[in-house]
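The instructor's notes for this session suggest beginning with a concrete chain rather than abstract definitions. Hand out the sequence below and ask the class to guess, before any prediction is shown, which regions might be ordered.
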Amino acid sequence: MSAPPRRDLAAMIVPLGRALTAAELPVLREHGLTMWAYSVLLRLDERPLRSQAALADAIGADKTRIIDVLSDLGDRGLISRTPDPADRRVRLLALTPQGRRVRDAAQAAIQLREERLLARHLTPAQRTALLDALQVLDALPAEAVSDPEP
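After discussion, reveal the predicted structure:
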């Protein structure tokens, strides 16, 4: 007799992702951030980006959707938008020290909530295995996920 089939990865991950996102919203509000603003702050930490279009692509947003987000973050001193010396029409987007502080505080609060969730429902070994597996999958290029053939 065979074991019952497991649920598809997306069928497990998507509802979990929605629930985790909903749990993050009050934390982000406490730090004066929207989900899009937090996504911008997380992405800009990796390296400055050359354009709004590059940033939008990196976070999976329509470039017109993040115009107001970037303006708000810039007005609040959380990001800088400076002309690119190689092309003055292009703006280099980067985190400011204040943006890094806000991002770090929000991320610490979110990850504390995540740790509490994981500790309630998983053993330490399960937590480590889950996080390790998610980091491996997260690092895959999109084409490796959409076409898993070697």
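Then share the key points. Residues 118 and 124 are 9 Å apart (CA to CA). DSSP finds seven helices and two strands in the chain.
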